[in-house]
Amino acid sequence: MSASFPFSTSVSPLQSHEFPRMPSLLKPRIHLPVLKPMTIALSRVVLPENLKVAASELPKTVAEPAEFREAEGLEVDSVTEAELKENGFRSTRRTKIVCTIGPRTCDFEAIEALAVGGMNVARVNMCHGTQEWHRDVIRRVRRLNEEKGFAVAVMMDTEGSEIHMDDLNGAESAKAEDGEIWTFTVRAFDPSSRPERTITVNYDGFAEDVKVGDELLVDGGMVRFVVTEKIGPDVICHCTDPGLLLPRANLTFWRNGSLVQERNAMLPTISSKDWLDIDFGIAEGVDFIAVSFVRTAEVIKTLKSYIRARSPKSQISVIAKIESIESLNNLEEIIQASDGAMVARGDLGAQIPLEQVPSVQQEVVQLCRELNKPVIVASQLLESMIEYPIPTRAEVADVSEAVRQQADALMLSSESAMGQYPDKALAVLRSVSLRIERWRREEKHYDTTDLPVVSSSFPASISEEICNTASKMANKLEADAIFVYTKTGRIASLLSRNRPDCPIFAFTPTTSIQRCLNLQWGLIPFRLDFSDDMESNLNRTFSLLRAKGMINSGDLIIVVSDVLQSVQAIKVP
Protein backbone atom coordinates (compact mmCIF):
# COMPACT_ATOMS: atom_id res chain seq x y z
CA MET A 1 0.00 0.00 0.00
CA SER A 2 1.23 3.47 -0.78
CA ALA A 3 2.16 5.61 2.19
CA SER A 4 0.07 8.49 0.90
CA PHE A 5 -3.63 8.62 0.18
CA PRO A 6 -4.85 11.05 -2.50
CA PHE A 7 -7.52 12.92 -0.54
CA SER A 8 -9.83 15.27 -2.41
CA THR A 9 -9.99 18.90 -1.30
CA SER A 10 -13.59 19.23 -2.47
CA VAL A 11 -16.56 18.75 -0.15
CA SER A 12 -17.41 15.09 0.32
CA PRO A 13 -20.79 14.07 -1.11
CA LEU A 14 -21.55 12.60 2.32
CA GLN A 15 -21.16 16.06 3.88
CA SER A 16 -23.00 18.06 1.22
CA HIS A 17 -26.71 18.74 1.13
CA GLU A 18 -26.91 17.20 -2.33
CA PHE A 19 -25.96 13.57 -2.63
CA PRO A 20 -24.42 12.42 -5.93
CA ARG A 21 -27.05 11.97 -8.58
CA MET A 22 -27.17 9.47 -11.37
CA PRO A 23 -27.13 10.78 -14.95
CA SER A 24 -30.47 12.10 -16.06
CA LEU A 25 -30.48 10.50 -19.50
CA LEU A 26 -33.39 8.21 -18.69
CA LYS A 27 -35.62 7.33 -21.59
CA PRO A 28 -37.36 4.24 -22.96
CA ARG A 29 -35.16 1.53 -24.45
CA ILE A 30 -34.40 2.00 -28.16
CA HIS A 31 -33.99 -1.02 -30.43
CA LEU A 32 -31.38 0.05 -32.96
CA PRO A 33 -31.11 -1.60 -36.38
CA VAL A 34 -28.00 -3.55 -37.24
CA LEU A 35 -25.56 -1.20 -38.95
CA LYS A 36 -23.15 -2.06 -41.74
CA PRO A 37 -20.42 -4.35 -40.36
CA MET A 38 -17.03 -2.79 -39.71
CA THR A 39 -13.67 -4.36 -40.39
CA ILE A 40 -11.94 -5.34 -37.18
CA ALA A 41 -8.44 -6.47 -36.41
CA LEU A 42 -8.16 -9.54 -34.23
CA SER A 43 -5.25 -10.46 -32.01
CA ARG A 44 -5.87 -14.05 -30.97
CA VAL A 45 -4.30 -15.86 -28.02
CA VAL A 46 -4.73 -19.59 -28.74
CA LEU A 47 -4.81 -22.10 -25.90
CA PRO A 48 -2.23 -24.89 -25.75
CA GLU A 49 -2.93 -28.09 -27.70
CA ASN A 50 -3.55 -30.11 -24.55
CA LEU A 51 -6.47 -27.83 -23.68
CA LYS A 52 -8.20 -28.07 -27.06
CA VAL A 53 -11.26 -30.28 -27.39
CA ALA A 54 -13.72 -31.18 -30.09
CA ALA A 55 -16.85 -29.07 -30.43
CA SER A 56 -18.93 -31.99 -29.16
CA GLU A 57 -17.06 -31.85 -25.86
CA LEU A 58 -17.77 -28.21 -25.22
CA PRO A 59 -20.25 -27.32 -22.45
CA LYS A 60 -23.86 -27.63 -23.48
CA THR A 61 -25.84 -24.38 -23.57
CA VAL A 62 -29.48 -24.02 -22.70
CA ALA A 63 -32.06 -23.23 -25.33
CA GLU A 64 -33.86 -19.93 -25.05
CA PRO A 65 -37.34 -20.48 -23.60
CA ALA A 66 -40.20 -19.40 -25.80
CA GLU A 67 -41.44 -16.81 -23.36
CA PHE A 68 -38.31 -14.64 -23.70
CA ARG A 69 -38.95 -11.79 -26.08
CA GLU A 70 -36.85 -11.19 -29.17
CA ALA A 71 -35.02 -7.93 -29.85
CA GLU A 72 -33.31 -6.67 -32.96
CA GLY A 73 -31.02 -4.37 -31.04
CA LEU A 74 -29.13 -4.09 -27.79
CA GLU A 75 -30.76 -3.79 -24.36
CA VAL A 76 -28.87 -2.40 -21.38
CA ASP A 77 -29.84 -0.72 -18.13
CA SER A 78 -30.57 2.90 -19.03
CA VAL A 79 -28.66 4.32 -16.03
CA THR A 80 -25.56 2.32 -16.95
CA GLU A 81 -25.87 3.50 -20.53
CA ALA A 82 -25.99 7.13 -19.38
CA GLU A 83 -22.99 6.63 -17.05
CA LEU A 84 -20.90 5.10 -19.82
CA LYS A 85 -21.77 7.90 -22.23
CA GLU A 86 -20.93 10.64 -19.75
CA ASN A 87 -17.95 9.24 -17.86
CA GLY A 88 -16.51 6.27 -19.77
CA PHE A 89 -15.66 2.70 -18.82
CA ARG A 90 -13.74 3.43 -15.63
CA SER A 91 -16.64 5.29 -14.05
CA THR A 92 -18.84 2.24 -13.63
CA ARG A 93 -19.51 0.90 -10.15
CA ARG A 94 -18.42 -2.71 -9.71
CA THR A 95 -20.14 -3.45 -6.37
CA LYS A 96 -23.86 -4.13 -6.79
CA ILE A 97 -26.64 -2.85 -4.51
CA VAL A 98 -29.72 -4.72 -3.22
CA CYS A 99 -32.58 -2.60 -1.83
CA THR A 100 -35.38 -3.96 0.33
CA ILE A 101 -38.77 -2.64 -0.79
CA GLY A 102 -41.12 -1.67 2.02
CA PRO A 103 -43.86 0.80 2.89
CA ARG A 104 -41.57 3.76 2.21
CA THR A 105 -40.57 2.61 -1.29
CA CYS A 106 -43.35 0.41 -2.65
CA ASP A 107 -45.01 2.72 -5.20
CA PHE A 108 -43.85 2.89 -8.80
CA GLU A 109 -42.21 6.31 -8.51
CA ALA A 110 -40.22 5.32 -5.41
CA ILE A 111 -39.01 2.08 -7.05
CA GLU A 112 -38.00 4.06 -10.13
CA ALA A 113 -36.07 6.51 -7.92
CA LEU A 114 -34.14 3.60 -6.39
CA ALA A 115 -33.39 2.20 -9.86
CA VAL A 116 -32.15 5.60 -11.01
CA GLY A 117 -30.00 5.80 -7.87
CA GLY A 118 -28.27 2.51 -8.65
CA MET A 119 -30.41 -0.34 -7.29
CA ASN A 120 -29.51 -3.57 -9.09
CA VAL A 121 -31.76 -5.98 -7.17
CA ALA A 122 -35.12 -5.30 -5.48
CA ARG A 123 -35.71 -7.47 -2.41
CA VAL A 124 -39.12 -8.41 -1.04
CA ASN A 125 -39.13 -9.74 2.52
CA MET A 126 -41.86 -12.30 3.15
CA CYS A 127 -41.64 -11.66 6.90
CA HIS A 128 -43.79 -8.60 6.27
CA GLY A 129 -46.87 -7.91 4.20
CA THR A 130 -49.16 -10.21 2.24
CA GLN A 131 -48.55 -12.09 -0.98
CA GLU A 132 -50.89 -9.65 -2.72
CA TRP A 133 -48.78 -6.71 -1.53
CA HIS A 134 -45.56 -8.37 -2.71
CA ARG A 135 -47.15 -9.32 -6.03
CA ASP A 136 -47.89 -5.66 -6.69
CA VAL A 137 -44.28 -4.73 -5.90
CA ILE A 138 -42.83 -7.45 -8.16
CA ARG A 139 -45.06 -6.40 -11.04
CA ARG A 140 -44.10 -2.76 -10.59
CA VAL A 141 -40.44 -3.74 -10.88
CA ARG A 142 -41.16 -5.72 -14.04
CA ARG A 143 -43.16 -2.82 -15.45
CA LEU A 144 -40.27 -0.48 -14.68
CA ASN A 145 -37.90 -2.75 -16.57
CA GLU A 146 -40.23 -2.89 -19.56
CA GLU A 147 -41.13 0.77 -19.75
CA LYS A 148 -37.95 2.51 -18.63
CA GLY A 149 -35.21 0.19 -19.86
CA PHE A 150 -33.90 -1.16 -16.54
CA ALA A 151 -32.73 -4.68 -15.72
CA VAL A 152 -33.55 -4.76 -11.99
CA ALA A 153 -33.72 -8.31 -10.64
CA VAL A 154 -36.15 -9.44 -7.91
CA MET A 155 -35.08 -11.35 -4.80
CA MET A 156 -37.66 -12.98 -2.53
CA ASP A 157 -36.51 -13.55 1.06
CA THR A 158 -38.27 -16.31 3.02
CA GLU A 159 -39.32 -15.79 6.62
CA GLY A 160 -37.73 -18.93 8.05
CA SER A 161 -38.73 -20.82 11.18
CA GLU A 162 -36.89 -18.91 13.86
CA ILE A 163 -38.65 -17.45 16.88
CA HIS A 164 -39.96 -13.96 16.25
CA MET A 165 -42.51 -11.41 17.43
CA ASP A 166 -45.84 -10.64 15.79
CA ASP A 167 -46.57 -7.65 13.57
CA LEU A 168 -47.37 -5.27 16.46
CA ASN A 169 -50.98 -4.96 15.25
CA GLY A 170 -49.80 -3.16 12.13
CA ALA A 171 -47.80 -0.50 13.95
CA GLU A 172 -44.48 0.54 12.36
CA SER A 173 -42.69 0.18 15.71
CA ALA A 174 -43.04 0.29 19.50
CA LYS A 175 -40.65 1.86 22.00
CA ALA A 176 -39.49 -0.13 25.03
CA GLU A 177 -38.17 2.11 27.78
CA ASP A 178 -35.68 1.21 30.50
CA GLY A 179 -37.36 -0.48 33.47
CA GLU A 180 -40.68 -1.14 31.76
CA ILE A 181 -42.46 -4.47 32.23
CA TRP A 182 -43.46 -6.27 29.01
CA THR A 183 -45.26 -9.58 28.48
CA PHE A 184 -44.30 -12.05 25.77
CA THR A 185 -46.95 -14.69 25.20
CA VAL A 186 -48.08 -17.40 22.79
CA ARG A 187 -51.69 -16.27 23.14
CA ALA A 188 -53.34 -14.56 20.18
CA PHE A 189 -55.45 -11.43 20.68
CA ASP A 190 -57.91 -9.41 18.69
CA PRO A 191 -56.37 -6.01 17.94
CA SER A 192 -58.89 -4.27 20.18
CA SER A 193 -58.37 -6.60 23.17
CA ARG A 194 -54.55 -6.81 23.28
CA PRO A 195 -53.23 -5.67 26.68
CA GLU A 196 -50.73 -2.82 26.72
CA ARG A 197 -47.03 -3.80 26.34
CA THR A 198 -47.92 -7.35 25.28
CA ILE A 199 -46.29 -9.12 22.35
CA THR A 200 -47.31 -12.45 20.81
CA VAL A 201 -44.54 -14.91 19.93
CA ASN A 202 -44.84 -17.37 17.03
CA TYR A 203 -43.34 -20.41 18.83
CA ASP A 204 -45.80 -22.47 20.92
CA GLY A 205 -43.10 -23.88 23.19
CA PHE A 206 -41.71 -20.46 24.09
CA ALA A 207 -43.05 -20.25 27.64
CA GLU A 208 -41.91 -23.81 28.46
CA ASP A 209 -38.37 -23.29 27.19
CA VAL A 210 -37.64 -19.91 28.77
CA LYS A 211 -36.51 -19.82 32.40
CA VAL A 212 -36.61 -17.03 34.97
CA GLY A 213 -33.31 -15.17 34.78
CA ASP A 214 -32.83 -15.73 31.03
CA GLU A 215 -31.99 -12.73 28.86
CA LEU A 216 -34.32 -12.11 25.91
CA LEU A 217 -32.68 -10.29 22.98
CA VAL A 218 -34.70 -8.58 20.25
CA ASP A 219 -32.99 -8.21 16.84
CA GLY A 220 -29.69 -9.46 18.20
CA GLY A 221 -29.62 -7.08 21.15
CA MET A 222 -31.23 -3.89 19.80
CA VAL A 223 -33.54 -4.26 22.83
CA ARG A 224 -32.82 -6.48 25.82
CA PHE A 225 -35.11 -7.92 28.51
CA VAL A 226 -34.63 -10.15 31.57
CA VAL A 227 -37.27 -12.80 32.36
CA THR A 228 -38.64 -12.13 35.84
CA GLU A 229 -41.71 -14.40 36.01
CA LYS A 230 -43.66 -17.06 34.11
CA ILE A 231 -47.45 -17.28 34.38
CA GLY A 232 -48.88 -20.03 32.20
CA PRO A 233 -48.34 -19.04 28.55
CA ASP A 234 -47.08 -15.58 29.57
CA VAL A 235 -43.43 -14.62 30.10
CA ILE A 236 -43.04 -11.44 32.14
CA CYS A 237 -39.90 -9.44 31.29
CA HIS A 238 -38.09 -6.37 32.59
CA CYS A 239 -36.50 -4.07 29.99
CA THR A 240 -32.80 -3.55 30.73
CA ASP A 241 -31.64 -2.05 27.40
CA PRO A 242 -34.30 0.23 25.86
CA GLY A 243 -34.86 0.57 22.13
CA LEU A 244 -37.21 0.30 19.19
CA LEU A 245 -39.26 -2.89 18.70
CA LEU A 246 -39.95 -3.59 15.02
CA PRO A 247 -42.66 -5.90 13.62
CA ARG A 248 -41.71 -9.59 13.39
CA ALA A 249 -38.32 -8.97 14.96
CA ASN A 250 -36.18 -12.02 15.70
CA LEU A 251 -35.99 -13.26 19.31
CA THR A 252 -33.16 -15.16 20.96
CA PHE A 253 -32.67 -16.02 24.61
CA TRP A 254 -29.46 -16.53 26.52
CA ARG A 255 -28.77 -18.45 29.71
CA ASN A 256 -25.56 -18.07 31.75
CA GLY A 257 -23.91 -16.25 28.85
CA SER A 258 -24.73 -18.89 26.21
CA LEU A 259 -27.31 -18.93 23.45
CA VAL A 260 -30.19 -21.35 24.08
CA GLN A 261 -30.66 -23.06 20.72
CA GLU A 262 -31.85 -26.59 21.36
CA ARG A 263 -35.45 -25.81 20.48
CA ASN A 264 -34.44 -23.66 17.50
CA ALA A 265 -32.61 -26.65 16.06
CA MET A 266 -35.86 -28.63 16.08
CA LEU A 267 -37.74 -26.08 13.96
CA PRO A 268 -37.74 -26.73 10.19
CA THR A 269 -35.58 -24.43 8.07
CA ILE A 270 -38.39 -24.04 5.53
CA SER A 271 -41.76 -23.73 7.26
CA SER A 272 -45.17 -24.47 5.77
CA LYS A 273 -45.62 -20.74 5.20
CA ASP A 274 -42.25 -20.61 3.45
CA TRP A 275 -43.32 -23.33 1.00
CA LEU A 276 -46.44 -21.34 0.13
CA ASP A 277 -44.28 -18.26 -0.38
CA ILE A 278 -41.85 -20.26 -2.54
CA ASP A 279 -44.76 -21.38 -4.74
CA PHE A 280 -45.74 -17.72 -4.98
CA GLY A 281 -42.20 -16.71 -5.95
CA ILE A 282 -42.00 -19.38 -8.65
CA ALA A 283 -45.35 -18.30 -10.07
CA GLU A 284 -44.26 -14.65 -10.13
CA GLY A 285 -40.93 -15.52 -11.76
CA VAL A 286 -38.60 -14.01 -9.16
CA ASP A 287 -34.90 -14.17 -10.02
CA PHE A 288 -33.57 -15.16 -6.58
CA ILE A 289 -34.98 -16.92 -3.53
CA ALA A 290 -33.03 -16.25 -0.33
CA VAL A 291 -33.49 -18.98 2.29
CA SER A 292 -33.37 -17.87 5.92
CA PHE A 293 -31.54 -19.71 8.70
CA VAL A 294 -29.99 -22.40 6.51
CA ARG A 295 -28.35 -25.09 8.65
CA THR A 296 -27.33 -27.77 6.13
CA ALA A 297 -26.71 -28.16 2.41
CA GLU A 298 -29.58 -30.65 2.17
CA VAL A 299 -32.13 -27.88 2.59
CA ILE A 300 -30.69 -26.04 -0.42
CA LYS A 301 -30.58 -29.21 -2.52
CA THR A 302 -34.20 -30.03 -1.65
CA LEU A 303 -35.38 -26.55 -2.58
CA LYS A 304 -33.50 -26.54 -5.89
CA SER A 305 -35.00 -29.92 -6.79
CA TYR A 306 -38.44 -28.60 -5.89
CA ILE A 307 -38.01 -25.53 -8.12
CA ARG A 308 -36.87 -27.71 -11.04
CA ALA A 309 -39.89 -29.96 -10.61
CA ARG A 310 -42.37 -27.10 -10.37
CA SER A 311 -40.84 -24.98 -13.14
CA PRO A 312 -38.35 -26.88 -15.33
CA LYS A 313 -37.49 -23.82 -17.45
CA SER A 314 -37.02 -21.57 -14.44
CA GLN A 315 -33.74 -19.69 -14.00
CA ILE A 316 -34.35 -19.00 -10.27
CA SER A 317 -31.15 -18.91 -8.20
CA VAL A 318 -31.14 -19.99 -4.53
CA ILE A 319 -29.25 -17.79 -2.06
CA ALA A 320 -28.27 -19.23 1.35
CA LYS A 321 -28.46 -16.79 4.24
CA ILE A 322 -25.58 -17.33 6.65
CA GLU A 323 -27.01 -16.26 10.00
CA SER A 324 -26.67 -19.10 12.51
CA ILE A 325 -24.03 -21.17 14.27
CA GLU A 326 -25.16 -24.25 12.34
CA SER A 327 -24.62 -22.50 9.01
CA LEU A 328 -21.04 -21.66 10.03
CA ASN A 329 -20.40 -25.27 11.03
CA ASN A 330 -21.45 -26.43 7.54
CA LEU A 331 -20.35 -23.35 5.63
CA GLU A 332 -18.48 -24.82 2.66
CA GLU A 333 -21.07 -27.50 1.94
CA ILE A 334 -23.90 -24.94 2.09
CA ILE A 335 -22.15 -22.51 -0.28
CA GLN A 336 -21.25 -25.33 -2.67
CA ALA A 337 -24.90 -26.35 -2.89
CA SER A 338 -26.20 -22.79 -3.27
CA ASP A 339 -26.14 -20.31 -6.14
CA GLY A 340 -24.89 -17.60 -3.79
CA ALA A 341 -24.77 -16.51 -0.16
CA MET A 342 -25.80 -13.63 2.06
CA VAL A 343 -23.92 -12.64 5.21
CA ALA A 344 -26.93 -11.69 7.37
CA ARG A 345 -24.93 -10.00 10.11
CA GLY A 346 -27.87 -8.93 12.26
CA ASP A 347 -29.15 -12.39 13.16
CA LEU A 348 -25.63 -13.83 12.96
CA GLY A 349 -24.47 -11.32 15.56
CA ALA A 350 -27.20 -12.58 17.89
CA GLN A 351 -25.72 -16.09 17.82
CA ILE A 352 -21.96 -15.53 17.91
CA PRO A 353 -19.85 -13.02 19.88
CA LEU A 354 -19.97 -9.60 18.23
CA GLU A 355 -16.20 -9.41 17.87
CA GLN A 356 -16.28 -12.50 15.62
CA VAL A 357 -18.69 -11.02 13.04
CA PRO A 358 -16.03 -9.11 11.00
CA SER A 359 -13.76 -12.13 10.59
CA VAL A 360 -16.73 -14.38 9.73
CA GLN A 361 -17.83 -11.86 7.11
CA GLN A 362 -14.40 -11.89 5.49
CA GLU A 363 -14.27 -15.69 5.59
CA VAL A 364 -17.65 -16.03 3.86
CA VAL A 365 -16.79 -13.41 1.22
CA GLN A 366 -13.49 -15.09 0.41
CA LEU A 367 -14.97 -18.61 0.35
CA CYS A 368 -17.79 -17.52 -1.98
CA ARG A 369 -15.28 -16.03 -4.36
CA GLU A 370 -13.14 -19.16 -4.30
CA LEU A 371 -16.24 -21.28 -5.07
CA ASN A 372 -17.49 -18.84 -7.72
CA LYS A 373 -20.69 -17.87 -5.89
CA PRO A 374 -21.95 -14.28 -5.57
CA VAL A 375 -22.02 -12.98 -2.00
CA ILE A 376 -24.10 -10.20 -0.43
CA VAL A 377 -23.09 -8.35 2.74
CA ALA A 378 -26.29 -7.39 4.56
CA SER A 379 -27.80 -6.01 7.78
CA GLN A 380 -27.23 -2.70 9.57
CA LEU A 381 -24.90 -1.20 6.97
CA LEU A 382 -26.43 2.25 7.44
CA GLU A 383 -28.76 1.65 10.38
CA SER A 384 -28.61 5.26 11.60
CA MET A 385 -30.03 6.46 8.27
CA ILE A 386 -33.40 4.99 9.18
CA GLU A 387 -33.80 8.21 11.16
CA TYR A 388 -30.98 10.54 10.11
CA PRO A 389 -30.01 11.97 6.68
CA ILE A 390 -26.31 11.14 6.93
CA PRO A 391 -24.52 8.01 8.19
CA THR A 392 -22.07 7.74 11.04
CA ARG A 393 -18.39 7.65 10.09
CA ALA A 394 -18.20 4.15 11.56
CA GLU A 395 -20.94 3.01 9.17
CA VAL A 396 -19.04 4.47 6.21
CA ALA A 397 -15.94 2.58 7.35
CA ASP A 398 -18.01 -0.62 7.60
CA VAL A 399 -19.33 -0.19 4.06
CA SER A 400 -15.81 0.59 2.84
CA GLU A 401 -14.49 -2.65 4.34
CA ALA A 402 -17.15 -4.72 2.55
CA VAL A 403 -16.21 -3.01 -0.74
CA ARG A 404 -12.52 -3.52 -0.03
CA GLN A 405 -13.18 -7.22 0.53
CA GLN A 406 -14.78 -7.16 -2.95
CA ALA A 407 -18.14 -8.58 -1.96
CA ASP A 408 -20.45 -8.83 -4.96
CA ALA A 409 -23.21 -6.76 -3.42
CA LEU A 410 -24.27 -4.64 -0.45
CA MET A 411 -27.83 -4.68 0.88
CA LEU A 412 -30.10 -2.08 2.43
CA SER A 413 -32.80 -3.48 4.73
CA SER A 414 -34.83 -1.16 6.94
CA GLU A 415 -32.90 1.80 5.53
CA SER A 416 -34.77 1.50 2.23
CA ALA A 417 -37.89 -0.36 3.39
CA MET A 418 -39.06 2.00 6.12
CA GLY A 419 -36.32 4.56 6.64
CA GLN A 420 -36.81 8.29 6.33
CA TYR A 421 -34.08 8.69 3.69
CA PRO A 422 -33.97 5.66 1.36
CA ASP A 423 -32.58 7.59 -1.63
CA LYS A 424 -29.81 9.14 0.45
CA ALA A 425 -28.88 5.79 1.98
CA LEU A 426 -28.59 4.35 -1.53
CA ALA A 427 -26.49 7.35 -2.61
CA VAL A 428 -24.08 6.69 0.28
CA LEU A 429 -23.55 3.06 -0.78
CA ARG A 430 -22.99 4.16 -4.36
CA SER A 431 -20.62 7.00 -3.45
CA VAL A 432 -18.53 4.95 -1.02
CA SER A 433 -18.35 1.99 -3.43
CA LEU A 434 -17.12 4.17 -6.29
CA ARG A 435 -14.50 5.83 -4.09
CA ILE A 436 -13.04 2.65 -2.61
CA GLU A 437 -13.05 0.87 -5.98
CA ARG A 438 -11.20 3.78 -7.57
CA TRP A 439 -8.72 3.82 -4.71
CA ARG A 440 -7.96 0.14 -5.21
CA ARG A 441 -7.33 0.71 -8.91
CA GLU A 442 -5.17 3.78 -8.30
CA GLU A 443 -3.11 1.87 -5.74
CA LYS A 444 -2.92 -1.13 -8.09
CA HIS A 445 -4.34 -3.51 -5.50
CA TYR A 446 -4.73 -6.37 -7.91
CA ASP A 447 -5.56 -9.60 -6.16
CA THR A 448 -2.77 -12.00 -7.08
CA THR A 449 -4.16 -14.87 -5.02
CA ASP A 450 -4.41 -18.07 -7.06
CA LEU A 451 -8.05 -19.07 -6.94
CA PRO A 452 -8.77 -22.81 -6.64
CA VAL A 453 -10.23 -24.72 -9.56
CA VAL A 454 -14.04 -24.87 -9.40
CA SER A 455 -14.73 -26.78 -12.63
CA SER A 456 -16.36 -30.18 -12.38
CA SER A 457 -15.49 -31.35 -15.91
CA PHE A 458 -12.70 -30.96 -18.44
CA PRO A 459 -14.72 -28.82 -20.90
CA ALA A 460 -15.72 -26.54 -18.02
CA SER A 461 -12.09 -26.25 -16.94
CA ILE A 462 -11.28 -24.84 -20.39
CA SER A 463 -13.77 -22.03 -19.81
CA GLU A 464 -12.20 -21.38 -16.44
CA GLU A 465 -8.69 -21.24 -17.93
CA ILE A 466 -9.90 -18.87 -20.65
CA CYS A 467 -11.39 -16.51 -18.04
CA ASN A 468 -8.24 -16.54 -15.91
CA THR A 469 -6.15 -15.71 -18.98
CA ALA A 470 -8.54 -12.99 -20.14
CA SER A 471 -8.53 -11.29 -16.74
CA LYS A 472 -4.73 -11.31 -16.53
CA MET A 473 -4.50 -9.93 -20.07
CA ALA A 474 -6.99 -7.17 -19.28
CA ASN A 475 -5.00 -6.05 -16.24
CA LYS A 476 -1.60 -6.28 -17.93
CA LEU A 477 -2.70 -4.50 -21.12
CA GLU A 478 -4.87 -2.02 -19.20
CA ALA A 479 -7.84 -2.92 -21.38
CA ASP A 480 -10.87 -0.66 -21.36
CA ALA A 481 -13.36 -3.52 -21.03
CA ILE A 482 -13.92 -7.25 -21.36
CA PHE A 483 -16.70 -8.38 -23.70
CA VAL A 484 -18.17 -11.80 -22.93
CA TYR A 485 -20.84 -13.56 -25.02
CA THR A 486 -22.65 -16.12 -22.88
CA LYS A 487 -25.84 -18.16 -23.17
CA THR A 488 -25.75 -19.60 -19.64
CA GLY A 489 -24.02 -16.82 -17.70
CA ARG A 490 -21.36 -19.14 -16.28
CA ILE A 491 -18.39 -17.76 -18.21
CA ALA A 492 -19.37 -14.21 -17.22
CA SER A 493 -19.47 -15.37 -13.59
CA LEU A 494 -15.98 -16.86 -13.90
CA LEU A 495 -14.68 -13.55 -15.23
CA SER A 496 -16.32 -11.70 -12.34
CA ARG A 497 -14.67 -14.10 -9.92
CA ASN A 498 -11.25 -12.83 -11.06
CA ARG A 499 -12.19 -9.21 -10.21
CA PRO A 500 -10.39 -7.67 -13.21
CA ASP A 501 -9.56 -3.97 -13.21
CA CYS A 502 -11.89 -3.12 -16.09
CA PRO A 503 -15.67 -3.59 -16.34
CA ILE A 504 -17.12 -6.73 -17.94
CA PHE A 505 -19.78 -6.32 -20.63
CA ALA A 506 -21.83 -9.52 -20.51
CA PHE A 507 -23.98 -10.14 -23.62
CA THR A 508 -26.71 -12.76 -23.25
CA PRO A 509 -29.80 -13.59 -25.34
CA THR A 510 -32.13 -14.21 -22.36
CA THR A 511 -33.70 -11.54 -20.19
CA SER A 512 -33.70 -13.67 -17.01
CA ILE A 513 -29.95 -14.31 -17.22
CA GLN A 514 -29.37 -10.62 -17.87
CA ARG A 515 -31.16 -9.81 -14.61
CA CYS A 516 -29.37 -12.54 -12.63
CA LEU A 517 -25.97 -11.29 -13.80
CA ASN A 518 -26.89 -7.90 -12.36
CA LEU A 519 -26.03 -9.27 -8.89
CA GLN A 520 -22.42 -10.12 -9.71
CA TRP A 521 -19.39 -7.91 -9.21
CA GLY A 522 -18.22 -5.89 -12.19
CA LEU A 523 -20.74 -7.28 -14.70
CA ILE A 524 -22.69 -4.92 -16.96
CA PRO A 525 -25.35 -7.22 -18.47
CA PHE A 526 -26.74 -6.60 -21.97
CA ARG A 527 -29.53 -8.51 -23.69
CA LEU A 528 -28.41 -9.27 -27.22
CA ASP A 529 -29.22 -12.02 -29.67
CA PHE A 530 -26.00 -13.39 -31.14
CA SER A 531 -24.77 -16.29 -33.27
CA ASP A 532 -21.80 -18.65 -33.11
CA ASP A 533 -19.99 -16.45 -35.68
CA MET A 534 -17.85 -14.27 -33.42
CA GLU A 535 -16.66 -11.89 -36.12
CA SER A 536 -20.26 -11.16 -37.04
CA ASN A 537 -21.16 -10.71 -33.35
CA LEU A 538 -18.32 -8.25 -32.82
CA ASN A 539 -19.17 -6.24 -35.94
CA ARG A 540 -22.75 -5.99 -34.79
CA THR A 541 -21.90 -5.21 -31.16
CA PHE A 542 -19.44 -2.48 -32.11
CA SER A 543 -22.02 -0.93 -34.44
CA LEU A 544 -24.70 -0.88 -31.78
CA LEU A 545 -22.44 0.40 -29.00
CA ARG A 546 -20.91 3.09 -31.20
CA ALA A 547 -24.39 4.21 -32.24
CA LYS A 548 -25.29 4.55 -28.56
CA GLY A 549 -22.06 6.43 -27.83
CA MET A 550 -20.87 3.79 -25.36
CA ILE A 551 -17.50 2.94 -26.98
CA ASN A 552 -14.94 4.94 -28.92
CA SER A 553 -12.38 4.26 -31.60
CA GLY A 554 -9.14 3.01 -30.09
CA ASP A 555 -10.71 1.36 -27.03
CA LEU A 556 -8.93 -1.89 -26.22
CA ILE A 557 -11.37 -4.76 -25.70
CA ILE A 558 -10.68 -8.32 -24.51
CA VAL A 559 -13.27 -10.67 -26.04
CA VAL A 560 -14.37 -14.02 -24.58
CA SER A 561 -17.19 -16.37 -25.57
CA ASP A 562 -18.56 -19.64 -24.21
CA VAL A 563 -18.48 -21.12 -27.73
CA LEU A 564 -14.80 -20.35 -28.53
CA GLN A 565 -11.49 -21.72 -27.25
CA SER A 566 -9.64 -18.42 -27.45
CA VAL A 567 -9.16 -14.98 -26.01
CA GLN A 568 -9.15 -12.04 -28.43
CA ALA A 569 -7.61 -8.61 -27.90
CA ILE A 570 -9.26 -6.06 -30.18
CA LYS A 571 -8.94 -2.34 -30.72
CA VAL A 572 -12.20 -0.68 -31.69
CA PRO A 573 -11.68 0.74 -35.22
From TrEMBL:
It is found in: Plastid, Chloroplast. NCBIfam families: pyruv_kin. InterPro entries: Pyr_Knase, Pyrv/PenolPyrv_kinase-like_dom, Pyrv_kinase-like_dom_sf, Pyrv_Knase-like_insert_dom_sf, Pyrv_Knase_AS, Pyrv_Knase_brl, Pyrv_Knase_C, Pyrv_Knase_C_sf. Residues 464-563 form the Pyruvate kinase C-terminal domain. PROSITE patterns: PYRUVATE_KINASE. Keywords: ATP-binding, Chloroplast, Glycolysis, Kinase, Magnesium, Metal-binding, Nucleotide-binding, Plastid, Potassium, Pyruvate, Transferase, Transit peptide. It comes from Corchorus olitorius. This is Pyruvate kinase. Gene3D superfamilies: Phosphoenolpyruvate-binding domains (3.20.20.60), PK beta-barrel domain-like (2.40.33.10), Pyruvate kinase, C-terminal domain (3.40.1380.20). It catalyses: pyruvate + ATP = phosphoenolpyruvate + ADP + H(+). Pfam families: PK (PF00224), PK_C (PF02887). Belongs to the pyruvate kinase family.
